[in-house]
Amino acid sequence: MKRAMIQRFIAVLSLALVVFGMISYVVSGNRLLDNTIVNMRQVIGSIDYALDYNEDVNSQVKEIQKALKNNLRITVLKNDGSVVADTDAADIEMLSNHSDRDEVKQALKNGFGYATRYSDTLSEKMLYVAEQTQNGAYIVRVSIEYQGLTDYLRILLPPLLIAIIFVFAAAMLVAGRFSYTVTKPLGEIAEEMLHIRSEEPEFDFKTYQYEELNIISYTTDQLINEIKENMDRLDFEKKVRQEFFSNASHELKTPITSIKGYTELLQNNLANSEETKKDCIQRIIRETDHMTNLINDILMISKLETKELSVDISEVRIAPLLAEVLESLQPIAIQNEVTLHQDCQPIVMQDSVDQLRELLSNLIMNAIKYNRPGGDVWVTIIKQSSEMTITVKDNGIGISEEDKARVFERFYCVDKGRSKKSGGTGLGLSIVKHIVSYHSGTLELESELGRGSTFTIRIPMQNENVV
Question: Within this chain, do residues 327 and 365 fall inside the same structural domain, yes or no?
């Protein structure tokens, strides 16, 4: 990766340096051309100052050329374009009129002009600079050999090459350092990610100077943590599923064994009296009902989990529904010497009356079962904002911190002996949790051993009314 980065960097850098060199060459060449023109105008000014136009101009310009000791060609023209002096012409009379030359036209119009072109007289490409004299009667023109910007190449090339080499070397150094600062962290991140193969992977991502790399390491760390959490969750669900099948088998096996035993007593005529036969039949019916309730609860949880439960939505009056549930549970409360209390606002909402009844029944039944003689259960239902809040509080035996995390698991019982005695299936709170989840609600539990428990449920309301 480091090699690929450097190769691409070299390619981009080389292209950039070529473009930079070309631009620098053109810009610098044009700048040198401008400076050359300025210098040539200064020479024209000196020539104009030195000439006496009342004397032989041609001999004067040749003397001036000798004094300047350079290869400048000096030409003096009248405003009509006729040549009166030229340092490189053997016979002035043979020179054509120069009024059509670009630099002469510009000088006549603007006082100054320049042009580049091929000279038939000298058989070379020349740069011409022309300017009117102070008296306005003549035009002085000077010219030098000019091959375009290539004339400046020998001047520009050495410093340009030195600059390019220096920039290239510095850029390579920076590229190497930059690629190292990128590839090293990526290598460290990749090395850390290899730890995921271990049974108990531990990761230690560093903080780097580039935020993008920190995002990679942070995201990778988050992803790995999520994977670990999902694996832990899958392991937990696998364990819960195994416990569920084990508990379900045990819960179903017990009534089936009882039914089989009582049936064999009847079949073998071992129940001699009518009273014994009647008792066996009642026990068979009770065990059958228990097994039916268990199967129905399991099916309900399964449908709630998969969102396949078919529900009938209708207008539900919460206060009458709560009164109905409390009335049905009153005999069990009397049997357990528990007093029920209610406080419900007159709420009307669109929902499933069966699910709400199941929810209330299981919550209140749980509060009755895990209470003590002389205990109380308070049920409060109010509307808060756009939610219906159901609170079921008791002053019973309470739940330990260890059991709090598991009370909503299927078949989990805080007090197994008490659960068996009450005839429950061990699925009540699990059903409550799944109904709340089905409604996209929240479920909170506060409890303390020996002081009781409080279950608080919040269910979003749609098309609700308070009447």
Answer: yes
